[in-house]
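As noted in the main text, all predictions were made from sequence alone. Below is one such record, for Metallo-beta-lactamase domain-containing protein.
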Amino acid sequence: MPSTPRAAIIPVTPFQQNCTLLWCEATKRAAVVDPGGDLDRIRAAIAQAGVTVEKILLTHGHIDHAGGAADLRDVLKVPVEGPHRADKPLLDSLPETGAAYGIDGAKVITPDRWLDEGDTVTVGELTFDVLHCPGHSPGSVVLVSRDARFAQVGDVLFRGSVGRTDLPGGDHAALIASIKEKLLPLGDDVAFIPGHGPTGTIGQERLSNPFLQ
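Prediction:
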């Protein structure tokens, strides 16, 4: 019987980004996905869940997803995995981007491990397949638990929408191709947590997402 993933969504930063505390119920080992900021809120959620964080996962390099990663790594003393190396310029410029958006204290973050298509990421006894899904950013990745029929999609796909492609490195055609070629084939029963807004399912988006019709 595969272990069950559990998740708590913690909205952070003025962008209300869905930082996710993701954990393995069997081992109480956890990962923090996309700690954009508001570390006190993230640490309170960790304490409330009673889990041990073993890593930080980044789906991509934008300020609202990665702005708090360096500080959280320093506090928790855990490695950072992801995104794909193509987002290195975004991660290298986090202090400047933060200043432009009025987010103080963002630091450059260099992951301990870059993620590539076909890699796997573990959280406790959970295993996630890595899909490289460029378009919203060049190095965006999606993490998929095929056993649990669950995906962490960052800003690639939203309920009823898709990621912005008007930011540096964005490419609308590449984004739609990523969704149609990599996410839709996962199956209609796969549930996902996006980087902003409510959760959804692949089936719901296949039927009703106006960007995919």
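DSSP finds seven helices and 13 strands in the chain. The chain has a mean pLDDT of 97. These features were considered when defining construct boundaries for the mutagenesis experiments described in Section 2.9.
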